[in-house]
Design goal:
The protein contains 18 helices and no strands. The chain has 458 residues and is an all-alpha fold. One of its GO terms (cellular component) is plasma membrane.
């Protein structure tokens, strides 16, 4: 394609590793920065109060579950745009991007009532009345942010497929800085502002999401090399064929993400049944696990782009070699994280706690125990997310959805309940059930990728 925006195809393992890291490191950084928005909220709410921390854990979990369902279209877009660029089809890039935005924003509008009435939903799930009410206060403010958050997901995926990832990292890092400053002012009432508590954290998040969306859309529309693609040209006009294609690929991805994130949210609800302290400790351990997961997600996204480019060029040798290298990089990082979780859990958990709070020692003890289990599922988590990234690159999304639903909800969730409650394992037992679900999913999906027609030599 004339003037294509891409890295050259790699021809050796070091070349593939270099290409993946050049593309993936900025994605990893932006993913970490994005999760850092929620981590900052969790840390500062931990300083503010334990009940507020527990409420934000539930609220952020529900918001994230709904967000990842809607972001399925954006992940489908990443593979589609990468394949279209590999095949030299500029028109398809524009068609798919426009309809991905349509579908994402339509979904954001459809779930607003769920977020507005979240308190009743959380009470039905067995949460304490005051925790559910606090979570609803947070969500009634942060629900507005679903529109810019999904816009960011779509534009970020498109820019990643164009291998324009550094700008995403820069914009996201600026957003984290804004979030820290606004949280400090609005949660605690500094510099003459009222003390808003968890509602202050929600306002800060919405502001950051709006700023980030405006910056990325502006870049994608005006950057000289991308302007010729006209990504937002005649955005108001429907393209039903492209919309159907994006929905066909994106809905299974969203449901796959729902199966996984829903499992983690279900474990949070189970923790709430045990008590506020285990729920707070679960939130801290989950934040640490999520930060490390973002590295795997970044490598997975880079693998999606590289696999999509090779898939578009019909280059099976590059697809296979790139997949091996991506798996190796992800598993090496996973081994480092296992060591950190097992060797220094105390200092990691302490980052999220005010030692002056009376509940801090108990939360610390539970959090350390959970990190030991989190170390166990790191390698399985790395395997499943990398398999999903590679399968998205070759536009295989439907079967992975059924694998995820079966393994997470048919195996992982019952295992968490049995190990946590029936066999008396408590908080650690619930997390061991996560290990079972992740192991089943990861091993099944990676076998599917390597045995698929896109990999098997003719």
């Amino acid at each position: 394609m004339s003037g294509s925006i891409s890295l050259p195809p790699a021809s050796s393992p070091p070349g593939h590793a270099r290409a993946l890291l050049v593309l993936g490191l900025p994605i990893i950084g932006s993913n970490l920065a994005q999760v850092g928005l929620h981590t900052v909220d969790t840390v500062m709410m931990g300083w503010y109060g334990v009940r507020e921390l527990a409420a934000v854990v539930l609220a952020a979990g529900l918001f994230f579950v709904l967000f990842v369902v809607g972001s399925g279209v954006s992940y489908a877009l990443m593979g589609r745009v990468a394949a279209s660029l590999g095949a030299g089809d500029e028109t398809q890039v524009r068609r798919d991007t426009r309809m991905a935005l349509w579908l994402s924003l339509g979904y954001a509008a459809a779930i607003q009532p769920v977020l507005f009435h979240s308190g009743a939903l959380l009470r039905l799930m067995g949460q304490e009345d005051d925790i559910a009410d606090l979570a609803q206060q947070f969500l009634r403010v942060s629900m507005i942010g679903m529109f810019p958050a999904l816009t960011v997901a779509v534009v970020k995926s498109c820019l990643s497929a164009f291998e324009r990832t550094r700008v995403v990292l820069a914009v996201t890092l600026i957003g984290v800085g804004i979030n820290i400053a606004l949280n400090w002012v609005l949660i605690f009432g500094r510099y003459g502002f009222p003390e808003l508590g968890l509602r202050g954290a929600a306002v800060s998040s919405v502001v950051v999401q709006l700023v980030t969306a405006a910056a990325l859309v502006g870049y994608a529309a005006r950057q000289p090399q991308m302007r010729r693609f006209g990504l937002f040209q005649r955005l108001w006009r429907p393209d039903w064929e492209a919309a159907r294609t994006m929905a066909r690929l994106g809905v299974p991805i969203g449901l796959t993400a729902l199966a996984e994130s829903g499992l983690f949210q279900a474990t949070a609800l189970m923790m709430g049944w045990i008590g506020t302290v285990p729920l707070a400790a679960h939130g801290i351990a989950m934040e640490l696990a999520m930060l490390t997961f973002m590295v795997h997600m970044g490598l997975s996204s880079a693998a999606t782009v590289r696999a999509g480019r090779a898939f578009g060029r019909h280059d099976r040798a590059a697809l296979r070699m790139g997949a091996w290298v991506a798996q190796a990089l992800s598993l090496c990082f996973g081994a480092v994280v296992v060591a950190a979780f097992l060797l220094i859990p105390g200092p990691l958990v302490a980052l999220f706690l005010d030692p002056a709070k009376p509940e801090a020692p108990e939360i610390m003890a539970v959090g350390i125990a959970l990190l030991a289990v989190a170390g166990l599922f790191q390698l399985f988590d790395a395997t499943q997310v990398m398999a999903l990234g590679l399968l998205r690159g070759v536009q295989d999304t439907r079967v992975p959805m059924w694998v995820a639903v079966t393994c997470y909800w048919g195996i992982g969730l019952p295992a968490s309940y049995l190990l946590g409650f029936t066999f008396g394992g408590g908080a650690q037992g619930i997390w061991l059930g996560l290990v079972v679900g992740l192991a089943c999913t990861g091993l099944t999906l990676i076998v599917r990728f390597w045995r698929g027609p896109w990999c098997v030599a003719r």
